Inverse folding.
């Protein structure tokens, strides 16, 4: 059995072990399990019943992550993205007047666009066209994004919507949970304990429970009514002119956000094929991402996308699809242990997020080898992440800088880079208009 797993997932060649992969999968699960509490709460603001949303979130996440592990054989976990569910609830439904069924329709059609471009290999061409220095800068930007998420979740920074507004309470229980988790993961990592990330989450969770920094309210009730949103998606929404901007926004956030995560989370690891510099089986991974969005909408939840918290498992040593398979199994168990998830509050994962974010940042030697434009991008992109809480806007800035570099050097910009910049600019304009 062990030999079969090793051969199928190529575990030894990638410098991992079955034990490391399983622990990494569990660490990823713990780091993103909050979504099974948070997603029903957010979509309930769109008028949806929490119980069907919980069912759809668990099932869509588990199936997508399982397929990612078995088909793409990559250590990425998928679930409902917070940026997309917030758009559906607060912009599409509350702001633009769509019903929640129509909101799911927007999600579905964004997945269709996603899949069309993936099958046409447009997305792979975009990834290939991104300059190597920009890929390293994407890794840096994702690192900043993870640290920023940790600061937001712990209350160390305060936010006005998506924007940093100031310094929060540095001595609150959730802030102290960040410090404890961070100290533990760096300590365990320094003494070469493979389960450093997992142990830090557990240690921080224990502290949270001791001081009462948990939410012990179950997010939803189980029962037959959990199936009531299956097939409720309203596909006719595409006939409404106002739906077009929503579909484009959801598509662009998912499409380019996952490109940033695929590149950013793997650049410093053995996952990248050293002969090509690319993530292997990209087409399979991207197809899973696109189909998962359509399946999720059909089941009754918002866009399913590759989670940046996959970096926690990768930071714990996960290099193969076994990490994703393990995570998916624990996701399915959530049908039985939902009330227990509150005992691992999101604050308990913040130290691990900081650790992984720092590990994703390229070395000083890598930065010193950049030319002037690449250094400008390496400064501008993380700064935009901090001030806009958006990987997509950071990518737009990066693409524009490299287009200017090509023009300054009297070279024709890569058409995929130019098209990506144009698409992201349209998306940013539409978001601002909404």
């Amino acid at each position: 059995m062990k030999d079969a797993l090793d051969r199928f997932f190529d575990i030894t060649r990638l410098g991992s072990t079955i034990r490391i992969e399983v622990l990494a999968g569990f660490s990823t699960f713990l780091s993103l399990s909050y979504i099974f509490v948070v997603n029903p709460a957010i979509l309930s603001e769109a008028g949806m019943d929490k119980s069907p949303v919980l069912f759809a979130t668990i099932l869509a996440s588990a199936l997508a992550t399982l397929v990612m592990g078995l088909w793409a054989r990559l250590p990425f976990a998928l679930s409902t993205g917070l940026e997309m569910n917030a758009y559906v609830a607060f912009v599409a439904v509350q702001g633009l007047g769509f019903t929640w069924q129509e909101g799911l329709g927007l999600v579905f059609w964004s997945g269709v666009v996603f899949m069309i471009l993936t099958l046409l290999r447009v997305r792979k061409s975009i990834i290939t066209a991104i300059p190597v220095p920009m890929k390293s800068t994407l890794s840096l930007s994702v690192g900043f994004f993870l640290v920023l998420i940790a600061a937001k979740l712990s209350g160390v920074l305060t936010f006005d919507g998506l924007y940093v507004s100031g310094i929060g309470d540095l001595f609150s229980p959730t802030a102290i949970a960040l410090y404890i988790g961070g100290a533990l993961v760096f300590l365990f990592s320094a003494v070469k304990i493979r389960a450093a990330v997992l142990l830090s989450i557990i240690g921080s969770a224990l502290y949270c429970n001791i001081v009462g920094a948990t939410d012990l309210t179950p997010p939803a009730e189980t029962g037959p009514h959990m199936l009531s949103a299956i097939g409720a998606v309203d596909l006719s929404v595409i006939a409404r002119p106002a739906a077009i901007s929503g579909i484009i926004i959801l598509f662009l956030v998912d499409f380019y956000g996952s490109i940033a995560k695929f590149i950013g989370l793997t650049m410093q690891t053995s996952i990248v094929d050293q002969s090509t510099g690319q993530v292997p089986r990209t087409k399979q991974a991207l197809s899973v991402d696109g189909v998962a969005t359509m399946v999720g909408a059909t089941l009754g939840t918002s866009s399913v996308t590759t989670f940046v918290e996959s970096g926690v498992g990768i930071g714990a040593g996960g290099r193969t699809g076994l990490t994703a398979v393990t995570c998916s199994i624990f996701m399915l168990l959530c049908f039985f242990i939902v009330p227990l998830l509150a005992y691992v509050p999101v604050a308990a994962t913040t130290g691990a997020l900081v650790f992984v974010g720092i590990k994703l940042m390229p070395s000083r030697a890598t930065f010193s080898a950049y030319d002037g434009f690449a250094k400008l991008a390496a400064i501008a992109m993380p700064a935009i992440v901090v001030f806009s809480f958006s990987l997509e806007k950071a990518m737009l800035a990066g693409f524009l800088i490299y287009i200017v570099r090509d023009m300054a050097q009297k070279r024709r910009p890569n058409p995929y880079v130019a098209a990506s910049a144009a698409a992201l600019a349209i998306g940013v304009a539409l978001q601002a208009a909404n």
